[in-house]
Predict the 3D structure of the following.
Amino acid sequence: MQDAKASSGYVHVAYVTRLALAAGFVLAGSSEVNANPKDTANHPGGVWALPPTFGNKDKDRDRYAAIGESDRFTLRFVKP
């Protein structure tokens, strides 16, 4: 379920899709090109714990560096 304020920094695909469809767009495609399966999206400090921000400073920095940047999604919407 999407946190309405996205306080963790993570936004769910279903949430974005629902907003776009409600605005009259049609989902025309998606891609995993920006996906990062190493990112569990469950970090103290949210997405900002990961590089390049390293919001938790040196705490578990090596672990977060090994994860890399956050898991991301790519969606293409068109207006019919």
